[in-house]
Amino acid sequence: MELRSEDAMPVLKEKVKNRVGQWFALCPARHILLFAGAVLTALYYFLRQNRAVMQFLKDNIVVPYHRAAGKVFSIVKFSVAEWLYALVIVATMVYIIYKTVIIVSRDGKMKQVYITIVSLASCAIAIYAGICILWGSCYYSDGFSEKSGLRAEPVEASKLAATTLYFAGLANEYADRVSRDADGLFNEAEAEYFDRGAGLYENAVRTFPFLDGPNLRPKPMVFSKIFSYMNFTGFFFAPTGEANLNTDVPSCMVPSTIAHEIAHQRGIAREDEANFVGIFAAVESGDERYIYSASLAAFTYLGNALHGADYESWAEIYTSLSEPVRADLRSVGEYWAKFETKVGDATEAVYSGFLESQGQELGIKSYGACVDLLVAYYGSK
Questions:
Q1: Other C-beta atoms within 10 Å of 192: how many?
Q2: Distance CA 260, CA 251 (A)
Q3: Could you state, in order of their start, the residue ranges of all structural domains in the chain?
Q4: 265-281: per-residue pLDDT in tens?
């Protein structure tokens, strides 16, 4: 007996429904997680250009969550974030190895492959959805420029040179006020400037009240050298609200990086703005270690820009640097030269891609775009 076309369609639909139901029954919780993660991610991408929605999300959910999580995890001095990263990496590797053994040694290989793919995909989409909501939303709400009124505008070479000279002078002034090792390099007690990090923004808040937040101690990382291979000097981890620092880098870099990561902790998402805010907060702190480190960072950003815009001015300013300042700058250059690897390039490309996906058109180059803000604020000093 042959089915008519109008009768065949319901039968086909029923078969498809049963087959879908069978596959869904293999791992229902993971399918639900996959679906929920996909819906949240799609909703975020659909709404992220709506400034009012993103601002509401940031002010009422994201920032309060960051502050609450930061206080909870401040109970311990170690970085919970890096151990979570390690746990996820190890757990993923173990799971893949385990499922590979199961797939090879048992029947129903296709079903096991399907469960494995759905499991990994559901976890990946859930993590990405969390990143979008807990951090990505901050890129699409009011940032430092909107709240402060300080705008990054194109600058003249003369003003760029003047600002570079200002920070060169500041570096020279404070170079002799910090402790140095036998090689003449910055050598302050790490524990002390990490402790100081908790209250670092007290003076900055007087100028920009919106930078206020809980005074939380930044976290040094155990696996710092691994992060150097990935070209990371530190990172803010939204799920735990922690500012995490790479302490394997030359010590002169760490205080300014602490200030940068705390800027993220205070809700400043864009890298150029976090660079400026970190430098500003460090200079305003009155702490000689932070002022010196921030001066080096500012001189580096400004000097790199001036080198291309007016080489003669750059060369004249560079020759004005004292030997201790030059020694620290050389140590930074020599350190990062050791980590110019394909791993670092790949990691940098991935992170740059993430920044671009969140509306940061310059990608990782946005770290250096703080130059215009520095000139706008310090250019007349």
A1: 11
A2: 15
A3: 5-139, 145-378
A4: 999 999 889 999 999 99
Q: 56 is written with which tokens? A: 């509401």
Q: What's phi and psi for 33, nearest 5 deg?
A: -65, -40
Amino acid of residue 312: E
Q: Show the DSSP H helices in the chain as ranges.
A: 5-26, 28-47, 51-57, 63-73, 80-105, 109-131, 137-139, 144-148, 157-175, 190-197, 202-207, 224-229, 254-265, 271-284, 288-309, 311-319, 323-337, 342-357, 371-378
Q: Copy the structure tokens of residue 296.
A: 């080096």
Tokens of 259: 């200030």
Of the candidates 118, 177, 145, the one whose C-alpha atom is nearest the C-alpha of residue 295 is 177
- Of the candidates 299, 268, 284, the residue with the CA atom closest to the CA atom of residue 368: 299
16-68: pLDDT as tens digits:
555 656 666 778 888 889 999 999 999 999 999 999 999 999 999 999 999 99
Q: What is the pTM of this model?
A: 0.86
- Give the length of the chain: 381
Tokens standing for residue 68: 């609450």
* Residue 283 CA, distance from chain mean position: 22
